[in-house]
């Protein structure tokens, strides 16, 4: 457990685990903890956190989106920290950009939402832009490629940071995709509502990945990674899929790649 | 506005498996996108230009009544006529009346999305008047009895070989043994046939990219010069356009033109930019004897003053369409509206009805690419979400989705229940995955597993459970 009192100057961070990492990929949150720790932060994991509320927000369910925003403001406020950090561009962006709007009309909540929004960051950009830290512990002999996730790159400007961090991983060679910023077709509930379109988009992304010749594709959002892994594995591809934090933290031994098991395929 | 967006899902299935369409759309991506990228990169002040363009349109929309009246007054001063059309039927009637007054049998038409919106061709044909499209793309789809699939490249879905066979079928005078394969040969053949029509038409109909309030002018841009021949040669010129096209001054038009061509095709300027102001004056060398402007509303004024007002800033450059991954996967026809892509999915529910087009705002990943490239900085993803909110509020969202969301939201605010649910789900999924780490099929998750495998959680429980057990350091 983290110490109760933090020495001055040490950033106090609350980890927003994100619902997808919590359920589908615990090693991503574990990797985030390890990286934040290595970067000199004290990290807490707010106990009551669940999901940021995007499923409701993007489905037009404003009432539940607002209620969920309130719930999460309260859950994340429970720890007195300087920052809230998430291993996901989409969840961090939702809190940063949408919470102040969703709760903006309510005087009891507007200020609290604004305050939370201002201190919430996506993991990779937090490490590089806020802390100026790139001293990652990971080592991996691999040729990889990188998918820029939509909310990360377009809403938060996460582009150079993952590349700066990957460049510090010993043994790692990065080959760029032909269209790194093209949406993979996940889109939250979109992928199950419109499987034909989503499948076409994921297929194009898989083609792009395979064409690089890389043995592994990395990215910073679990939704996209589940989608890309699902498509590559459906096609029988041997290309591995991982969240970039796992590679940066040197946690690739903690779990098989996404969509792969302990048994040989 | 006639929309068939209710069939969206069925349309999509055909579209994603259409090999011809795949090829056409791939060409679009490499063509339009690359060219726009280069044009924008070559203009350091592009961002400032966007702000300026946005400000012009925002200001105009705030004072739309003023500028429209101003425009009308200038048109009248120059001897032209303005016809206010609250809906499509009134607009079609106005065009028909003008044609009848002048005894028109054939009308030539420059490309006009508003004419497509009001389905003018079918209406004129039904009243014994023959419309001939003079934009090459529009001409091709007219011969093929199709609708445009893109707002600036209406025949983008048609392959070159298909154009050749369409020409051979529809141009009986074309010798069967003459080659018709190269773009040059196709163009020459179209030109030969169209030239006759230009000379024989009684009325020329064009759209307008902009209407200039200070001068009463309409402005069109083309790359084929067909617009000029359409509006200069016949005795009557009818501009069929819509109310949000008006801008205050010629200077403003210049600013918007600089944005338009770069965003659309990556050109600095379109090949032809034509300004028409009233009928021919006594010492003009050419021009029509009569000048009419049909100004369509058709739902636009309803959008003013609300959360969708900003969409009226649109200058129809199609950048959002060219960069949309969903459009890139399904093409334009699947949308079932003359306005496809992100702009169409925002505009169509506003102009037609949300009931008829409920699929469109949902058929987006909200990836944000459209807003990123839109020269007018229209927040298209936010607007798609606004429509989704209206659907939800008006119970147009399927009951299964509503109940699912309700159950999820109930649990997501009760951590103990949520942990119970995720714990069970995680264990179940990873057991079903049986060491393979993924599932090829899962009941109730057919939408996912229809096209891809579902990766399952590794054994060992959720992160929150592991953290509680102290296993995560
Ligand atoms: S919405 Fe923007 S990008 Fe799309 S056509 Fe209109 S102006 Fe162009």
TrEMBL record, chain A:
A GO molecular function term, named singly, is: oxidoreductase activity
A Pfam family recorded for this sequence: CCG
Gene Ontology CC, one term? cytosol
- The residue ranges of the Cysteine-rich domain are 13-96, 144-228
Q: What is this protein called?
A: (Fe-S)-binding protein
From which organism does this entry originate? Roseospira marina
From TrEMBL, chain B:
InterPro entries cross-referenced by the UniProt entry: 4Fe4S_Fe-S-bd, 4Fe4S_Fe_S_CS, FTHF_cligase-like_sf, Helical_ferredxn, LUD_dom, LutB/LldF, LutB_C, NagB/RpiA_transferase-like
The highest taxon in the source lineage is Bacteria
Q: Where is the 4Fe-4S ferredoxin-type domain?
A: 305-335
Keyword S-adenosyl-L-methionine (UniProt): no
In Pfam terms, one family for this protein is LutB_C
- GO terms for molecular function, please? 4 iron, 4 sulfur cluster binding; metal ion binding
GO biological process: one example: lactate metabolic process
Q: Read off the PROSITE patterns from this record.
A: 4FE4S_FER_1, 4FE4S_FER_2
Keywords, sorted A to Z: 4Fe-4S, Electron transport, Iron, Iron-sulfur, Metal-binding, Repeat, Transport
Instruction: Kindly indicate where the leader peptide sits in this chain.
Output: none
* NCBIfam families recorded: LutB/LldF family L-lactate oxidation iron-sulfur protein
Q: What is this protein called?
A: Iron-sulfur cluster-binding protein
């Amino acid at each position: 457990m983290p110490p109760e009192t933090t020495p001055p100057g040490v950033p106090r961070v609350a980890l927003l685990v994100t619902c997808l990492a919590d359920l589908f990929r615990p090693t991503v949150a574990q990797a985030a903890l390890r990286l934040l720790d290595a970067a000199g932060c004290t990290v807490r994991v707010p106990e009551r956190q669940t999901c940021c509320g995007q499923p409701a927000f993007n489905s037009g369910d404003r009432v539940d989106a607002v209620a969920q925003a309130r719930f999460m403001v309260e859950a994340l406020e429970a720890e007195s920290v300087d920052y809230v950090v998430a291993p996901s561009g989409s969840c961090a962006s939702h809190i940063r950009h949408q919470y102040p709007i969703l709760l903006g009309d309510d005087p009891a909540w507007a200020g609290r939402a604004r305050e939370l929004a201002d201190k919430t960051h996506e993991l990779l950009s937090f490490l590089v832009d806020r802390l100026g830290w790139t001293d990652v512990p990971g080592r991996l002999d691999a040729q990889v490629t990188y998918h820029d996730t939509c909310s990360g790159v377009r809403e938060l400007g996460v582009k150079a940071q993952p590349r700066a961090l990957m460049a510090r991983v010993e043994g790692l060679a990065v080959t760029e995709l032909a269209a790194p910023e093209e949406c993979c077709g996940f889109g939250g509930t979109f992928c199950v509502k419109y499987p034909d379109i989503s499948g076409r988009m994921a297929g194009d992304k898989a083609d792009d990945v395979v064409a690089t010749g890389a043995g592994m594709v990395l990215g910073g959002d679990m939704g996209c990674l589940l989608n890309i892994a699902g498509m590559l594995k459906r096609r029988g591809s041997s290309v591995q899929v991982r969240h970039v934090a796992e590679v940066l933290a040197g946690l690739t031994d903690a779990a098989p790649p996404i969509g792969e098991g302990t048994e040989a395929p | 506005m006639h929309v068939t967006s209710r069939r969206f899902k069925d349309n999509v299935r055909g579209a994603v498996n259409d090999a011809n369409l795949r090829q056409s759309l791939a060409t679009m991506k490499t063509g339009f996108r690359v060219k726009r990228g280069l044009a924008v990169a070559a203009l350091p002040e592009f961002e400032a230009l966007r702000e300026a363009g946005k400000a012009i349109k925002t200001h105009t929309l705030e004072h739309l009544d003023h500028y429209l009246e101003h425009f009308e007054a200038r048109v009248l001063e120059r001897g032209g006529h303005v016809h206010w059309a609250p809906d499509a039927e009134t607009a079609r009637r106005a065009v028909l009346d003008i044609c009848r007054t002048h005894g028109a049998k054939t009308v030539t038409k420059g490309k006009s999305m508003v004419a497509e919106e009001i389905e003018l061709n079918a209406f004129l044909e039904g009243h014994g008047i023959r419309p001939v499209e003079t934009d090459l793309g529009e001409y091709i789809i007219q011969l093929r009895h199709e609708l445009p699939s893109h707002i600036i490249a209406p025949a983008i879905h048609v392959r070159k070989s298909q154009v050749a066979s369409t020409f051979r079928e529809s141009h009986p005078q074309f010798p069967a043994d003459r080659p018709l394969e190269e773009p040059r040969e196709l163009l020459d053949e179209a030109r030969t046939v169209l030239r006759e029509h230009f000379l024989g038409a009684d009325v020329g109909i064009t759209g307008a990219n902009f209407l200039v309030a200070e001068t009463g002018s309409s402005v069109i841009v083309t790359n084929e010069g067909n617009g000029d021949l359409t509006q200069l040669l016949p005795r009557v010129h009818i501009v069929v356009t819509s109310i949000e096209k008006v801008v205050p001054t010629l200077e403003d038009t210049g600013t918007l033109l600089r944005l338009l061509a770069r965003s659309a095709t990556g050109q600095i300027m379109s090949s032809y930019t034509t300004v028409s102001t009233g009928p021919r004056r006594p010492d003009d060398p050419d021009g029509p004897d009569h000048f009419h402007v049909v100004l369509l509303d058709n739902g636009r004024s309803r959008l003013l003053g609300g959360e969708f007002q900003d969409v009226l800033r649109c200058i129809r450059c199609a950048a959002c369409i060219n960069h949309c991954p969903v459009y890139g996967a399904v093409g334009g026809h699947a949308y079932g509206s003359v306005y496809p892509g992100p702009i169409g999915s925002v505009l169509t529910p506003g102009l037609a009805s949300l009931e008829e087009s409920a699929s469109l705002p949902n058929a987006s990943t909200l990836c944000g690419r459209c807003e990123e490239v839109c020269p007018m900085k229209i927040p298209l993803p936010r607007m798609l979400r606004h429509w989704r909110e209206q659907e939800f509020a008006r119970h147009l969202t399927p009951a299964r989705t509503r109940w699912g969301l309700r159950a999820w939201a109930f649990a997501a605010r009760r951590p103990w229940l949520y942990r119970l649910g995720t714990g069970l789900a995680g264990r179940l999924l990873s057991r079903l995955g049986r060491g393979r780490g993924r599932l090829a099929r899962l009941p109730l998750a057919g939408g996912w597993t229809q096209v891809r495998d579902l990766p399952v959680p590794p054994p060992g429980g959720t992160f929150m459970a592991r953290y509680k057990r102290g296993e995560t350091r």
